Each structure stands twice: as structure tokens, then as C-alpha cells.
Amino acid sequence: MTSATTPLDIGGLEAVYDRLAQAIDTAGDAKAPLFLVKLALLNAQALGDATLFNAHIEAALQDL
User: Least enclosed by CB within 10 Å: which of 27, 50, 60, 62?
Assistant: First the structure.
């Protein structure tokens, strides 16, 4: 696996959002939480930085 060296631009974020929405729909309501946990763990492993991943968790929890 390779990691990105630059942040995604708006177009890249929109493409990722669209694919994520499709994958959540494919997983279905009952399996969506499990899918999201698996995806988060795979991304944490690819990121390779637990502190940064924890910061991402805190950012995602804001304004829910």
C-alpha cells in the first residue's frame, strides 16, 4: 500500500465521498457499522500514526 503525500483536492474528496456512500449502501444498514470500523482500522494502519488517527477521531466527533 502507498500513502498519499498531498491532501486530496475538492474533486478528490468528492470522489472519495461518492465511493464511500456507495460502499455503505452496498454493506446495508445492518453491516454498515462493521464496514466503517473495518475501513477505519485499515486506514489507521495505512496512516501509521496512532496520535494522528486519534486526532482525526476527535475532529470527526465535532458537531455531530
Answer: 62
